[in-house]
From TrEMBL, chains A, B:
InterPro entries: FAD-bd_oxidored_4_C, FAD-bd_PCMH, FAD-bd_PCMH-like_sf, FAD-bd_PCMH_sub1, FAD-bd_PCMH_sub2, FAD-linked_Oxase-like_C, FAD-oxidored/transferase_4, Oxid_FAD_bind_N. The keyword Flavoprotein applies. Residues 39-219 form the FAD-binding PCMH-type domain. Belongs to the FAD-binding oxidoreductase/transferase type 4 family. SUPFAM superfamilies: FAD-binding/transporter-associated domain-like, FAD-linked oxidases, C-terminal domain. PANTHER family: BLL6224 PROTEIN, D-2-HYDROXYGLUTARATE DEHYDROGENASE, MITOCHONDRIAL. Keywords: FAD, Flavoprotein. GO terms for biological process: respiratory electron transport chain. Transmembrane segments: none annotated. This is 2-hydroxyacid dehydrogenase. GO terms for molecular function: catalytic activity; FAD binding. Its cofactor is FAD. It comes from Devosia riboflavina.
Length: 475, 475
């Protein structure tokens, strides 16, 4: 006989105190309302444990009583992993575990609890002259636990890696309430299986991350940033390869932007000036770091080489912080500018880097066949093969009709192209509840079975974020 | 009723053909004789499958018949993971799966089968103007499958990462003979649990790796190498931090070497000339990469800064390939030079980087208390916190007596110091059969239980490298 919401809330209040439990649905808005506005189930309760020990007690109780728990950070996730699927789960907010436990710039590590807001992690590192190089649009709200559970990326994956690569160790509460203590500042440690990389990116289904040891890096003294004119995604790829050859890991960012993005942003007054050198069908935003004690000019020198090879036709290098800020605004406003042009259908996909031009051309052609006049707006992390392959409705179309007619059909068409090119249907955002069916369709069945076996082994009662990611529960 | 060796060999011959089975113990030497000369059990048979499908058939049969399988690459492992523990296992050599399946320098990936010799992987990348930056002393024999199964490191982990970090995806035969097809050239792919990082470093206990997609990098145009005089490990640590601050990931290597190593090597004629600038109690071998199109002098400039801060007293920068070769020989001959000075006791340990000076001073003091006159010879990857903390016998002592009296006692003393400093008792070499008991003693019990649960889930009959690493079998 499953417990009622009232029984659940009451039991939790006994464990962590009534002030750490939200039982009134009317007060749960901040925890239930997710960014996509797609998922609307309620929760049995929300609990905000003030400590790791309190969280362990909650999980032990939930495991004994077969109550589903949904770990939540900043509620910024885009696939509904952090909000209810069934309506009977308890949301566990990690927000009160918000301490920076330690920073050691010499060792290049910072230990932060799961509830630390990403932007605060940045500030803590900068206060010590270092940086935690993972930047997301949502960093003012996203918290470390969620960033790691979704293996978030960002524009600097090219130089510094994604969340998994930036995490050295984690501490996590397991399904039975025991604490896995893997906070590890060791770069070399071959004493058993890699549990850290299993827990990171598991979307809260194998353990609730409570703290992590993160890599921090020396602050560059400066950045060199340019907006470069390229004729096509193929040309952009050639430029990327030359940049990588010459600059190696000083290459901080390589972002592809289509001209339509500039149109949209200028038309709607989103830029104080045109950041580009001159009109071009495509642009590449390129950035290089410069460390203290090294000479400036590496980017300029590399651009001259691309110009000599006729890979680019024009370029502008940022000469001031205002220039650099404007160039990055041009890139960061790409999603927002689409919303000013009606409805849009989005895809978070990746392909092998060399297949990015094919993804864009074949995907755009397929979309045009499906919906004549549809406006492709592909942009993003070309150096990672991760393109935000978005489509704006035809100009003048009815937004609701467009979405209801084409949303699913276009997803199918684009995912077909992606899979044919050996790509991923979820490059950054994860599976959550949005893509559980899709995962079952497209993922290698042997891999799915391994994952189910691991889930069953580590969470036999299926209480950790039930139904998310694998869309499967052990019991 | 377990099968006899004859029955096993016969069954295998039926599956893969008699020419792929070695059943005569007298002909198994190459597979049984491991580098440490510590493990002497025989095998029921050795099988050399010519293809992935043949290997799958072998594993299916072994799983149905409860026969233990030991995957083996180049037989260079140092903890006995690749040789029998019980004497009834079948060694499965991956040597015949030795193709480079593909190289794509634009995408920065190379797919190599498990039997590819590491040195051949280097050559294949170099033929395309790229490099696979994982260098081991054993690279002329070590094979990719073993390199990955042990998560091997090397001197360039500082700049490029260890085997796990250099692997993008793997293909592996699972315990039931099914093929996990995770060869993945995608940098960003959030579609499920990270199975790749679970299989890498699992020492063949969760799956038999048959191929891997490896990261390759643009070849640097040049290296800048220096041998620097430092007063102490503490001073070396300060130098390391300054180097890292200025050079970031262009810092290719930072190796600590004690003066006693120079003594040993010069005394035994192992160097054609003294590679150092002048006498010093400690040396740091520092190397920086220079990419095409960038200015030389970054190392010199950084060294000048260390000199101004009085962190170093003298230095010599390599001016020729001969200089560079001699400096690296000085480092690479450290293990060998000890063997010319009698018996030595070795430890493959790591601590947080900032604790390296404490490891060396406390470990040396403890060793001296245990065995007066013992000669500490600590050297290695300071930038990773991984010191090969070796001890040469007192001059003139009887080698056999020294080893029998102090081998275990010194391990205990040094591991105590390592664990107290938050370190690892196996930084690089893994657990195999050498350190199974030690792992059970020192590892977090919750972590061990998670590992056993995962092992049971993925290999319920316990046929994959039984008894290795966890020293535990499911059935």
């Amino acid at each position: 006989m499953p417990l009622s919401s009232a029984e659940i809330a009451s039991a939790l209040a006994t464990i962590v105190g009534a002030d750490a439990v939200v039982s009134d649905t009317a007060k749960m808005g901040a925890y239930l309302n997710e960014p996509r506005k797609r998922f609307h189930k309620t929760a049995a309760a929300v609990v905000t444990p003030p400590s790791v020990e309190a969280l362990q007690a909650v999980v032990r109780w939930a495991n004994e009583n077969h109550v589903g728990l949904i770990p939540q950070g900043g509620n910024t996730g885009l696939v509904g992993a952090q909000v209810p699927l069934f309506g009977t789960e308890v949301i566990v907010s990690l927000a009160r575990l918000d301490r920076i436990r330690s920073i050691d710039t010499a060792a290049g590590v910072m230990t932060a609890e799961a509830g630390v807001i990403l932007e605060n992690a940045h500030r803590a590192a900068e206060a010590e002259g270092a940086m935690f190089p993972l930047w997301l649009a949502s960093q003012g709200s996203a918290r470390i636990g969620g960033v790691l559970s979704s293996n978030a990326g960002g524009v600097n994956v090219l130089a510094y890696g994604n969340a998994r690569e930036l995490t050295m160790g984690v501490e996590a509460v397991l399904a039975d309430g025991r604490l896995y203590q893997g906070l590890n500042a060791l770069k070399k440690d071959n004493t058993g299986y890699d549990l850290k990389d299993l827990l990171v990116g598991a979307e809260g289904t194998l353990g609730i991350i409570t703290a992590a040891t993160l890599k921090i890096f020396p602050l560059p003294e400066d950045h060199e940033t340019a907006l470069v004119n390229v004729a096509s995604p193929e040309a952009a790829l050639d430029v990327f390869q030359l940049m990588r050859q010459r600059l190696s890991s000083r290459l901080n960012a390589f972002e592809l932007i289509p001209h339509i993005g500039l149109d949209f942003q200028l038309r709607h007054g989103m830029l104080d000036a045109d950041p580009t050198a001159s009109p071009s069908p495509w642009y590449a935003l390129i950035e290089v770091t410069r460390m203290a004690g090294t000479e400036p000019g590496a980017l300029q020198s590399a651009l001259e080489a691309t110009f000599e090879k006729s890979l680019i036709s024009d370029a502008v290098i940022a000469e001031s912080l205002a220039d650099r800020t404007r160039m990055w605004a041009f890139r960061e406003q790409m999603s927002e500018c689409q919303s000013k042009e009606g409805a849009s259908i989005k895809h978070d996909v990746s392909v092998p880097i060399a297949a990015v031009p094919a993804l864009i051309s074949e995907g755009s052609a397929a979309a045009e066949r499906l919906s004549p006049g549809i406006r492709p707006v592909p942009f993003g992390h070309m150096g990672d093969g991760n393109i935000h392959f978005n489509f704006s409705q035809p100009a003048g179309a009815d937004p609701k009709a467009f979405m209801s007619q084409y949303d699913e059909a276009l997803h199918e068409v684009i995912y077909d192209v992606v899979l044919k090119l050996g790509g991923s249907v979820s490059a950054e955002h994860g599976i959550g509840q949005l893509k559980t069916d899709l995962l079952k369709q497209v993922k290698d069945p042997v891999a799915l079975e391994m994952m189910r076996a691991i889930k069953t082994a580590l969470d036999p009662n299926g209480i950790l974020n039930p139904g998310k990611m694998l869309g499967f529960e052990p019991s």
